[in-house]
Amino acid sequence: MQLAEPSGLLSIGMFVVPVALLVLLLGGFWLGTRIRSRQSRPRPEEQPHLPPGGAVHETRERREPREVPRVPKGGRPLLPHEMGGFGNSSTQPGQEQSRPRWSPGNSGAWGGGGPGR
User: What spans are recorded as compositionally biased (Polar residues) (predicted)?
Assistant: First the structure.
């Protein structure tokens, strides 16, 4: 029966623990702000600059797969360094660089744009 009786210690604990957590979080925020304010900031001459040729822009090109070198019958498999740069990129610029356009009456989506059936 004594364990079931309300205790003033429990109600004090339910108030003190959240207040202590709040003080701990605010103290961490304050300490982090102080440390960050002491760090040196980069000078303007240390900031990145544009390259001499100006801004670099995105390029678009159509790519096509590069042919994998064939191994002659009875020959040994080629090692990566013997593939002539194939390991760096498995594609090359395509012959046709114009963008493909949709054909008339075709939306280009999976439905095809035709009449519904």
Answer: 88-97
Residue type, 78: L
C-alpha 16/C-alpha 26 separation (Å) is: 15
> Cα(24)–Cα(15) distance, rounded to whole angstroms?
15
For residue 62, the tally of other CB atoms under 10 A from its CB is 13
Beta partners for residue 91, in sequence order: 65
Residue from 95, 97, 91 nearest 65 by CA: 91
Q: For the whole model, what pTM was predicted?
A: 0.35
Query: CA gyration radius for the chain?
Result: 34
Give the chain's length: 117
93 CB contacts (<8 Å, ≥6 apart)?
Answer: 61, 62, 63, 64
C-alpha span between 108 and 102 (Å, rounded): 6
